[in-house]
Amino acid sequence: MRDLFTHIPEGEEDRLGTQRREVLEYLRIHPDGMTRLDALNEGVMQIQTRIFELRAKGYSIRTDWREVMKKNGKTARIGVYVLEGIG
C-alpha cells in the first residue's frame, strides 16, 4: 500500500502529527465527539483531513450526524467525529 504521507513537505509532518495527536486526545477525553467548530477551537483547521489520516493509520472513528438549530430558526445537520472502542 502506498504511504499516504509521502506527499507532505519536509517539516510539515511534525505539525500535522501534533494535530493528529491533539484530535486523538480530544476524542479520548470527549466521548461525545468532536465537531468542526470544536476542532477550530483547538487550532485544527482541516478536521476532515486529520480524521482521514487517523483512519488510514487504523483508528476507528465514526461520523455521527446531529441536527442543530441555526440562528434563523432553521435546522442544519453537522458531523460529529467519535472515537470507537473507548468508554
Structure description:
- The chain has 87 residues and is α+β, with helices and mostly antiparallel strands.
- The protein has one domain: Orthogonal Bundle (Arc Repressor Mutant, subunit A).
- Helices cover 39% and strands 21% of the residues.
- The chain is built from 3 helices and 2 strands.
- A two-stranded antiparallel ribbon has the order 1-2.
- Strand 1 and strand 2 form a beta hairpin.
- The longest helix is centred in the N-terminal third of the chain and has 18 residues.
- The chain is globular, with a radius of gyration of 14 Å.
Strand proportion: 15-25%
Count structural domains: 1
N to C succession of SSEs? HHHEE
SS-derived structural category:
alpha+beta
What is the count of β-strands?
A: 2
CATH structural architecture: Orthogonal Bundle
Main sheet attributes: strand count, strand direction, barrel closure: 2 strands, antiparallel
- List low-pLDDT spans: 1-9
Distance between the termini: 32 Å
The main sheet orders its strands as 1-2
**Main CATH class:** Mainly Alpha
Overall geometry: globular
| Rg over alpha carbons | 14 Å
Provide tags for this entry:
single chain; alpha+beta; Arc Repressor Mutant, subunit A; two-stranded antiparallel sheet; 3 helices; globular
Which secondary structure elements does this structure contain, and how are they paired or packed?
Layout lengths: L11 H18 L6 H6 L5 H10 L4 E9 L5 E9 L4
Antiparallel strand pairs: 1-2
Helix pairs in contact: 1-3
